[in-house]
Amino acid sequence: MPTITQNSAVTLHFAIKLEDGSVADSTYQMGKPAKLIIGDGSLSDNFETHLIGMSKGQKRSISLAASDAFGLSNPDNIHYMERAKFVGDTQVEVGTVMAFSGPDGVEIPGIITEIAGDSVTVDFNHPLAGRDVVFEVEIVGVE
Questions:
Q1: Is there a smaller number of Cβ atoms within 10 Å at the N or the C end of the chain?
Q2: Do the Cβ atoms of 69 and 46 come closer than 8 Å?
Q3: pTM over 0.70
């Protein structure tokens, strides 16, 4: 039975849970496993390291510190914008995730974290940055 190595095509189910047990992301909820190639950038190197050597049918639960999962929150990724820049039907409220154009034209998601007068604080860190997580994985197939 093939085991996962660099460049393996892997089909897997996963759940990413927070410290309190709540599910942040899960393929089980979508009812469809994820497919990826080890090394294609779909998962961080650290997540992939834990998959190497696994084979079809195996399950594993991996606790990862924030620095090993989605990284620590970077203060340089928090930006303050004028409320006037949010025009039209845009809902400007705390917790709203919006797409912003990055310097290279690629859209970057940002979460509105604070509104104070005419200033809107937008956090461009990954929503799970700074959070310890449990990565539960079930290998469905390896090619």
A1: N
A2: yes
A3: yes
Q: How far apart are CA 69 and CA 129, in angstroms?
A: 8
Which pLDDT value is given to residue 78? 96
Q: Domains in the chain, ordered, with CATH?
A: 9-71+128-142 (3.10.50.40), 75-123 (2.40.10.330)
Residue range 118-130: mean pLDDT, rounded: 94
- Render pLDDT for 51-99 as a digit per residue (tens, 0 to 9): 999 999 999 999 999 999 999 999 999 999 998 888 766 678 999 989 8
Place of tokens 């940002």: 110
Which amino acid type is present at position 74?
Answer: N
Closest CA to 25 of 123, 143, 142, 134: 134
Distance CA 130, CA 50 (A): 20
